[in-house]
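Our example pasted here:


***
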Amino acid sequence: MNSNNDISQNNNQSGMAASARVVILGAGESGVGAAKLAQKQGFDVFVSDFGGIAEAYKADLQRMNIPFEENQHTEALILNAGEVVKSPGIPSKAPIVKALVEKGVPVISEIEFAKRYTNAKTICITGSNGKSTTSMLTYHILKNAGLNVGLAGNIGHSFAAQVADQQFDWYVLEISSFMLDDMYEFKADIAVLLNITPDHLDRYDYKLANYAASKMRIVQNQTSADAFIYCADDEETKKALDTVNIAAQAYPFSILKKVEKGAYLEDNNIYINTNLNNTLTMSISDLALQGKHNIYNSMASGIVAKVLELRNETIRESMGEFKNIDHRLEFVAKINDVTYINDSKATNVNSTWYALESVNTDVVLIMGGVDKGNDYEMLKDLVKSKVKAIVCLGKDNKRIHDAFEDDVDVIVNTFSAEEAVQVAYHLAKKGSTVLLSPACASFDLFKNYEDRGNQFKAAVKEL
């Protein structure tokens, strides 16, 4: 069987010369976008999804006259591809992917594929937590500054679809580790690594080092003309930095120590400097995004803006007025002096840690769902000090009970958002916060984290 390096070399040597046939695996936002771009570039395109295809995407494929199949992978229609574009949700261990690798067919990500057909510069943001917020904030700053910029990757519309239809000069791309795994020749002009904490370890043989190595692919192919922005306070990032050579200009950010080039916190002000003059200074109380984790996110976005030599006034204004994305520490309502917060996007333990860290009251915590091999140890101190009750929302809550039964007085099982909100309402005391921050994926009871968050918000509004 070929290793990833073999695939990379195979891809480098053959490009698309082996065949004009491109097969897309997965027919979600990423896959349908890749199909659209492949068709526009003149390839013979086929789309295959092992599950059902959503009606909207099916309609898109039919409108473009692109042949597709759902609920199966027909090997005879896939293994004859010159190249395969794989949706990030499909693991490399999937039988069809293994068969392709054995046959020597290059398997790449949509991001890799799309980048071949645009001269736009890319700002690529990855990390276990905060990448959606940082991507949105960076996009907001650049757009406010008048740049011709698109937002894509793990957020918004497919990168490939935008390359097919738009003419942007810059793209802000939210990049997951799954995308990075299938990227070989791709280069980020500006790479941002926010943090590395245990997540998706089921895809990495339950080894944090494997996951960290995936994240470090964000710097591959960079040169001294590029920029690499990273958190100097993150222990796993510091360890991972020792395993790679960084060719790009490095800009660390820290809230614990002063840095010469990059960003740091001192006396409740952040200082951002990329060229040793014209420093941007901003009080953290003026940031639209509050909480320690959002200081980091704002610093990362601010460094991107300074690398692009945007005006301090524009950066300050944008970072002061930005509205965060839905389902990420989203205020829902205050009822009988109890605050309800929707943090449904917190699908791993570290995100829930950030959420608890940012709340300054007693908490009734709604958590649970599909456990991805979570280690709840990092939450214990915050749970002991802040959480008065845990409302489990999921089909199997045993691991949450085992983790926290000695830390809180009340742990209750519920099986719908409405039931969870009703129980939390009766457990919450005046002045406290009901926080939905699940630390788990949503697929046992909901379509996705958005569906979970929307059902939570609807239930709160029924109170």
Summary: The two ends are 57 Å apart (CA to CA). The chain has 18 helices and 20 strands.
